[in-house]
Description:
Layout: E1 4-5, H1 8-18, H2 20-35, H3 41-45, H4 50-67, H5 69-72, E2 91-92, E3 99-100, H6 111-147, H7 149-163, H8 167-175, H9 184-192, H10 194-208, H11 212-234, H12 247-275, H13 279-286, H14 291-299, H15 304-327, H16 339-347, H17 358-384
Antiparallel strand pairs: 1-2, 2-3
Amino acid sequence: xxxxxxxxxxxxxxxxxxxxxxxxxxxxxxxxxxxxxxxxxxxxxxxxxxxxxxxxxxxxxxxxxxxxxxxxxxxxxxxxxxxxxxxxxxxxxxxxxxxxxxxxxxxxxxxxxxxxxxxxxxxxxxxxxxxxxxxxxxxxxxxxxxxxxxxxxxxxxxxxxxxxxxxxxxxxxxxxxxxxxxxxxxxxxxxxxxxxxxxxxxxxxxxxxxxxxxxxxxxxxxxxxxxxxxxxxxxxxxxxxxxxxxxxxxxxxxxxxxxxxxxxxxxxxxxxxxxxxxxxxxxxxxxxxxxxxxxxxxxxxxxxxxxxxxxxxxxxxxxxxxxxxxxxxxxxxxxxxxxxxxxxxxxxxxxxxxxxxxxxxxxxxxxxxxxxxxxxxxxxxxxxx
Length: 385
């Protein structure tokens, strides 16, 4: 069957049109950000430089793409239409007369739709795994840097032990399919996912222990919401079926947290060792404040700048890592539309068809670029603070 095609200019206009929810959301969010930037603190300060504006815009673009993926994508990312196998960009699907804007891959799936849905996988795993790694690193790094002594020695030894292991080999061992048949990923998930609950319980206890009406409410919400998320992620037992993660994604999630936490730990430990010598910490000690109160409410807020910058960079590293794992066929399912898997599938036919490899590659590159620009701008603002 002879396929019909649209022109390159029509492809360009078609892509712009498909992203209309993203453009609308960007106009609203960026417009409000510019108007109220003086009241938005650190986020508002990002709009004082071109680097910050570019970084925020790129990151928001992919965030809104992930949110509105079902509206943007014209086809099912897993759907196969035999006539569209290896179709060139702009090919018109004969039955529905829909357009494969970026062409079809070797399994006759729409490349544009797979690129769009691939953003969901990246923007769920990378920021969430980085957030959990931050919780683990902060929770362990604060006492190590503040108390020192044996606590610091033991925790630093464990962190250095993980960091001494080659990262790629570590991930290869943690995300191989066979490991899901063992209790190791679930045991690690059960341990790591406790840290956010512990962190927020201690945070609220140290702040509101003299105000029981506020304390009981916040502690109750922490335990209920934390337990709900914990049950859904670790045991897949969410009664509402809202919190759910596939075994392959859980495997990658745990691997990222395990490999990233020691780096966060060392950064937090170093910051605490420096900040605990400041006068305001000595003043809090003189007032008789508890050590954990000082760590969480005096030291940690003053370490937020470097930690925010590190978090942005780590999300970028994790995104690249997910692409690398997908390229080697590890972790996610083979039919997954994530960008790494899409690049792997397309790379096998580069001599014949280049177009399947370009969209996921550009998407991955642009998102990481946006995170790096955002981190650069945040670093400048943290230095000013």
